[in-house]
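Letters spell out the chain; backbone shape is given numerically. Both lines appear below:
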Amino acid sequence: MTLPQPSDSRLAALRTTFYRGIPALLAGCVFLAAWELYVDLSGIKPSILPAPSRIVMQGWLNRQGLIANTWPTLGATLGGFALSLAFAFAASILMDFVPFMRRALLPIFIASQTLPLVAIAPLVVLWFGFGLLPKILLVALVTFFPLLVALLQGYESTDRDIAELLNSMKASRWRIFRLARLPSSLPYFFAGLRISITYAVVGAIFAEYAGAARGLGIYILNAKNNFRPDLVLAAVVVSAVLTLCLFGLTLMIQRLVMPWQPSGELRR
């Protein structure tokens, strides 16, 4: 009997992914075609509702401005997400090792998520200026909570028999965490990572609305003030593509870290 080769498995996985994406692709094409047809038949002004073809054309003609404003948004997104990841990981370890800290800090973190970003963003810009730091802080504020909850839930999913076995072998608390609790949290961590990364770009753009010199948020604001909905939507498309790329990057990292488990599948 011939065993399947690794290349065959990867090819089968790619084929399966492609087939699963066909319905979404068809739905998107139908939506864009209906949008284009409606604009052509209704005679609506481009200043009200531009057609998809016009959005693509104007985005291409103004690609230099879009690219120049994408880099600051990407920098704020990655910087804020890195800070969020480090803070969530450190806080989760502290709350896992010290139950009192979990009871003390978790309600505060939950309350922080109830604060309206539209009210907090101008204050953060006022306190820290118009540079990169307030954007990083706001992105971290938006993204850290899903990561924290995912890590805490992952620690709790540790197999009790494994933990008791390590404990019977006189393993230290840190060693049990490193060998059992941390590996058990990986599927939950990557699920939280995918959720957070979708919020990161939106958080960076919103932070730029509150005050920035460059970025997709400022580009969208200027296009809106100039009554250019085509450029507004072109920037929205760029932000969506950026989010999808970052989302895909998290899936690639998960496959490298956890090659034995399909992406997005939590252990049951």
User: Anything to note?
Assistant: The chain has ten helices and no strands. The first helix runs from residue 6 to 42. The chain has a mean pLDDT of 85.
